[in-house]
Amino acid sequence: MPDSSTTNVPDVPAEAWSGVHRGPLRVGEWVRLTDQKGRRHNFELTAGKRFFSNKGHLEHDELIGREEGFTVTSSAGGQYLVFRPLLSEFVVSMPRGAAVVYPKDAAQIVALADIFPGARVVEAGAGSGALTCSLLRAVGPWGRLTSYELREEFAEVAKRNVDQFFNAPEGATHPAWDLRLGDLKVELPAMDGQVDRVILDMLDPWNCVDAVAEKLVPGGIVCAYVATTTQLSRVVETLRAHGGFTEPQPWESMVRDWHVEGLAVRPGHKMIGHTAFLVTARRMAPGETPPRKTRRPAPGAYGPDYTGPRPADIPPLPVEAGDGTENGTNTEG
């Protein structure tokens, strides 16, 4: 049989900033051990150090220098699969400040917001750096990702996680990344130039719509990541009422695993259900508006109980019908 060793396969070039290595495991890399029950352990390889678990210990030196994808046995007989962690595995186990954007949503953002190599992207906020890693890998070292984070402690966690994933040298970080402390609503209007994509992972993305419209190139995409239906409604209606974006597209994704053993083929008992809603819209050219929707809203959709932003083609409510409101604005003194 032909030799299947990958020892002579060259490593991924460092200038690609992929966060991926080929070849034997080396000191300073992170590995992911998975036991027979599916429990996972991530740690950095250090010469002379030991890994401890309820199944005994392993010497790091037993792992260093071997090709990933092998099984190792601990001192107490526990068996572990050894691989380098994938990005999707890294982000769900890394240290957290804020909640992370899960891989199923990060993948949707990268694909459906069309993040491309060389893109100029703005992200708010950085959180723990999970989505940041996916965005940086997508834009590549020749793109630009500017991340705004309000809280310094979250920014510090994000920087550590991003630098760890991309194996950044001491004192360096990904060349495409510009991490800034500040409020996007305040900082974005002062930012130089225009951008191709804006990703809004924040509590009130609707308050940024005007600033985003000014900075997005025609054809550019805004993508909002929100947790609740009230946030979803507000951001969709604000984008729609602005008039300078295409019809907003809201959705969510759910992931269900399957159990497959011989004739026993059925849905698994675990499912990643609701994590967040996503909304995308494209920027129209200056002075242009999208075609009017041919399908009218359902009766009562914008009735007296609705107090949010109103699309331009929806007539305002009479003051008396709206209980002191008109166009969703409180008119009381």
Could you please describe the fold and organization of this structure?
The protein is of the alpha/beta class and 333 residues long. It has 2 domains: 25-85, Vcp-like ATPase, Chain A, domain 2, CATH 3.10.330; 90-290, Vaccinia Virus protein VP39 (Rossmann fold), CATH 3.40.50.150. Helices cover 21% and strands 27% of the residues. The chain contains 8 helices and 17 strands. The strands form 5 sheets. Strands 9-8-7-10-11-15-12 form a 7-stranded mixed beta sheet, with helices on both faces. Helix 3 runs parallel beside helix 4. It is globular. The protein starts with 29 loop residues before the first strand and ends with a strand. The relative contact order is 0.09. The model is unreliable at 321-333 (pLDDT under 50). One of its GO terms (molecular function) is tRNA (adenine(58)-N1)-methyltransferase activity.
Based on the model shown, name its key terms.
globular, Vcp-like ATPase, Chain A, domain 2, 333 residues, tRNA (adenine(58)-N(1))-methyltransferase TrmI, Rossmann fold, 27% strand, alpha/beta
